[in-house]
Fold this protein.
Amino acid sequence: MLNILVLCTGNSARSILGEALINARGDGRVAGYSAGSTPTGTPNPLALETLAAHGLPATGYSSKSWDVYSAPDAPVLDAVITVCDSAAAEVCPIWPGAPVKAHWGLPDPAAIADAEAARKAFHHTFNALDARITALMAALDGDDRDALKRAFDTLNARPNDSRQDTSA
């Protein structure tokens, strides 16, 4: 089983969506986790609403510090994806095993004050993450970290998605 951690500053919106999507699209080969540098403490209700609207489980998520995944008893991470620019710019913990790193910067739907506009932004963010994660899973041709790195490299090489900034 490959383990992918999705990071965002607050771990309440984009990273929660990413965790859910990786678990849903991972087909038992990939497990998704999420965390933040300064977690809010609870998932954003619109993130949970969006998951439910797309037929994914909307319970069991928590907003937690990325320190949880650098603890000795944490799952060994094969990849770390940052989904917000501020988390990508922060000094991350040293992850045991030097996982593959990728940055998929997306606007924060939780930063939108108008409820209906925020709801639409959450669905847009869900769809963007779903497309990337589905493509990542389709490109995954094995069950080890090298295969995962090749899958990220394949996505990075696609000319149609210039926002797919992935680095190892």
User: Anything to note?
Assistant: The beta strands are 2-7, 30-35, 79-82, 100-103, 165-167. The longest helix spans residues 115-139.
